Amino acid sequence: MIRDGVRSDRAIASVLGVSHSQVSRWRQGQRPDRENADRLAGLALVVEMLLRWLDADIVEEWLTGANPHLDGATPSYFIQRSRLSGVVGAVEAIKTGVFA
C-alpha cells in the first residue's frame, strides 16, 4: 500500500527518517525494529487514507510538505516522531474541507 503513494525506497526513507539502504533491507525481508515497524504501519495507514482523497501523484508531496494543520511542520516529521494522531487529524481535515 505504501508504494501506491510513495513510490521509491529513497522517498520512503525520507518520510520515515531512515537510510535508503535500511528500506531496501526491509523490502528484501529483514524485519524492522519495533519502532520502525510502527512507523511503517502508520505510514501505510496514512497513505491508504490519503489515496481516498488525493491523487497518488500528490501523496508524497503532501507527506513532505509543510502542513498548516500541523503548525507548518511536515507530516513526515510527525511520523518520524511516532505522532501519528496529528497526521491522521490533518488527513481528516482534508476530508472535511477544513482549512487552517
Explain this structure.
The chain is mainly alpha-helical and 100 residues long. The chain has one domain. Helices cover 66% and strands 0% of the residues. The chain contains seven helices and no strands. The longest helix is centred in the middle third of the chain and has 18 residues, at 34-51.
Summarize the structure.
Helices cover 66% and strands 0% of the residues. By secondary structure, the chain is an all-alpha fold.
SS-derived structural category:
mainly alpha
How confident is the prediction overall: mean pLDDT?
A: 93
- H/I helix tally: 7
Largest sheet: none
Q: Determine the fraction of residues in helical runs and give it as a percent range.
A: 55-70%
From the alpha carbons, calculate the radius of gyration and give it in angstroms.
13 Å
Provide the low-confidence segments as ranges. Answer: none
Count the beta strands. Answer: 0
- Tell me the β content: under 5%
- Shape descriptor reads globular
Measure the end-to-end span: 28 Å
Count structural domains: 1
Helix-strand string: HHHHHHH
Task: Break the fold down into its secondary structure elements and pairings.
Elements lengths: L1 H4 L3 H8 L3 H8 L6 H18 L4 H9 L10 H6 L3 H13 L4
Helix pairs in contact: 2-3, 4-7
Fill in the keyword field for this structure.
single chain, 100 residues, mainly alpha, globular
